[in-house]
Design brief:
The structure is a single chain. By secondary structure, the protein is an alpha/beta fold. The protein has a single domain (4-211), classed as Rossmann fold, CATH 3.40.50. The protein has five helices and twelve strands. Strand 11 and strand 12 form a beta hairpin. It is globular. The N and C termini lie far apart (39 Å). 34% of the residues are buried.
Length: 212
C-alpha cells in the first residue's frame, strides 16, 4: 500500500484515506476527490461481467423515472432536433431513448456495448453521462475528451452521487459497487469547470451540469 499517489483528476497529491474490504482509497488534498487504488480496480473482463448484471431497461418505468431529471434539463435547454451523445450509454440507454421519443438526435458510445468510436469525432449540442463519471479510471482524460466534443453553448449533464464534507465514506453505499472508482466533491467539480473552460457549473444533488 502506498502512502500517497497522484490524483487521477488534478494530478495533485492524494494521500491514503482508508482501506475497506481490501480496497484502498486515496483522497486528494487539492480537489477533495476520493479514488480507488489502481491496483484494486477490476480488470476489463470483470468490469464487463458486473455491468452485465445491471438491469437498466429503457422500458422500465422506475428506471425512466430515475433518469428523468437528466432528460428534463436537456428538454428545458434545447429544442427538439438538437444533437446529443449518450457517453457510457451501457446496455440500456434509457435517457437516450426518452430523448429520442421527444425528437432529439442522440448517438451512443460505450466501450463495451456501443464501441464504435465514430461518434467521438463529431460535435454535439449536449452530452449526457448517466451514472458514468464515477467509473472513470482517468477522469482528466475523459473530461478533456468530453469538453472537446461540445459545440458553443453546449452542455455536459451528469448523474452521480457527490461527496459531501459530512459524509461517512466507510458507511456510504455508493462506494460498494466495485466498478465505482472515482468520487467527486464540489471542489472536484469546480476544478473540472475551471480546468476545462466551462462557463458555468450547476450542482443539484445528483444532477450536475457543465455549460460551455
Amino acid at each position: 500500500m502506498l502512502k500517497e499517489v497522484k490524483c487521477a483528476l488534478c494530478r495533485s497529491i492524494a494521500k491514503h484515506y482508508m482501506c475497506f474490504r481490501d480496497k484502498n482509497y486515496y483522497r486528494c488534498a487539492n480537489c477533495h476527490s476520493v479514488m480507488m487504488a489502481y491496483e484494486d480496480q477490476l480488470d476489463a473482463e470483470m468490469e464487463k461481467e458486473r455491468y452485465d448484471q445491471h438491469n437498466n431497461d429503457p422500458a422500465d418505468s422506475g428506471y425512466r423515472c430515475f433518469v428523468s431529471p437528466l432528460v428534463k434539463i436537456i428538454t428545458n435547454k434545447y429544442a427538439s432536433g438538437a444533437k446529443g451523445l449518450d457517453y457510457g450509454a451501457g446496455p440500456g440507454p434509457a435517457a437516450a431513448v426518452m430523448l429520442g421519443e421527444k425528437g432529439y438526435d442522440v448517438e451512443l458510445y460505450d466501450p463495451y456495448y456501443h464501441p464504435d468510436r465514430a461518434p467521438l469525432i463529431k460535435k454535439y449540442d449536449f452530452i449526457i453521462c448517466s451514472e458514468v463519471i464515477e467509473h472513470f479510471r482517468d477522469p482528466a482524460k475523459e473530461f478533456s475528451l468530453l469538453r472537446s466534443l461540445l459545440l458553443p453553448q453546449g452542455s455536459l449533464v451528469c448523474l452521480t452521487e457527490v461527496l459531501t464534507d459530512d459524509l461517512d465514506f466507510k458507511q456510504w453505499y455508493y462506494k460498494n459497487d466495485p466498478t465505482h472508482v472515482f468520487f467527486y466533491h464540489k471542489h472536484s467539480l469546480l476544478y473540472i469547470k475551471n480546468e476545462y473552460d466551462f462557463s458555468n457549473l450547476t450542482i443539484d444533488k445528483r444532477l450536475i451540469c457543465f455549460d460551455v
